[in-house]
Amino acid sequence: MIDGRAREIDHLRLSLIDHCNLACRYCVPEGARPSRQMIDASFAFELVRWLSRYHGVRHVRLTGGEPLLYPDLIPLVRRLASLAQLNEVTLTTNGQALTQKATALCEAGLSRINVSLDTLNPDRFAHVTRGGRVEHTLRGIEATIKAGLTPVKLNMVVQRGLNDDEIVDAARWGLELGCVVRFLEVMPIGPLAHVIDDHLVPASEILDKLSEAYRLVPIPQSPGQPAVDYAATSGTSRGVIGIIAPTTRPFCERCRRIRITSHGAMVVCVHDSRCLDLADCWDGRRLDEHRANEVLKTAIMDKPAQGSRSQSLTMIALGG
User: Fold this and answer.
1) Are 109 and 77 in contact (CB under 8 A)?
2) C-alpha distances in angstroms, 178 versus 43, 126, 161, 244, 251?
3) Which of 10, 192, 201, 205 is an S-S bond match for 158, by CB 3.0 to 4.6 Å?
4) What pTM did the predictor assign?
5) Domains along the chain?
6) Distance (Å, rounded) from C-alpha 38 to C-alpha 260?
7) What is the pLDDT of residue 34?
8) Angle between helices 134-147 and 98-108 (to 10 degrees)
9) Residue 153 pairs with which residues in a beta bridge?
């Protein structure tokens, strides 16, 4: 797929479920009531099969909400991993249930896991996630490494006044386990766009703090990669650290992704409210590929050069 700005689209973020066992403050608005929507597993598989066979999608990331809550996750991963056209099937999770699922995911053919870990401090974790227990995520990370789903990528959304004093500690902890540690800027999305006003820590500041403890050498980026990766070295601590800076260093010009929500809507830009319905192309048994092709053509050609930052959906509804 080539969009109207000559960008090749080969990455799909597929949301399986729109609810979560946590309620992170930059993701879920206060008092929000999720719809508890789950995409039909056969519909999800047929969408990926169609996009990979005919339209060049090579990378699929399963998201939510929290995808580990999706009841058909393991069978779906197994079916997706069997598609010859895909280079990888990955998953982003908060890690709370990874201890129970890591081995099964590995055996099903999952390529890799990204884990959200915004703090190592139990009290802060409970505050940021509105009740989560950090020890569950930490044990899940260890179980994932033991299962062989490596390298695990740890994602820390850096927030001023909440965890910006933990940047170096988080890097050191993750690198010692052999993880890739990535630091993300807060994104202004939907009803929670205002979080950047008080909590944005720009990439330049994150790098300054990391540079006090590590020697950082840039690593060439692969096409479509939002993170800028660095080889990090400090004594015996070494590995890969990444920076994802959608707010101060937008990477729209190299965006290669589309999203499908758990409602079956195609979203071509996380910062644009426009979406097109693919659910109408599914009759419960079969995907109407002719109608789906028309939806896809319209969506891809309308993918903006840069998002208008007019998104009305929350991050949890968009699929992360």
Assistant:
1) yes
2) 36, 25, 28, 19, 27
3) 201
4) 0.95
5) 11-318 (3.20.20.70)
6) 12
7) 64
8) 30
9) 114, 180
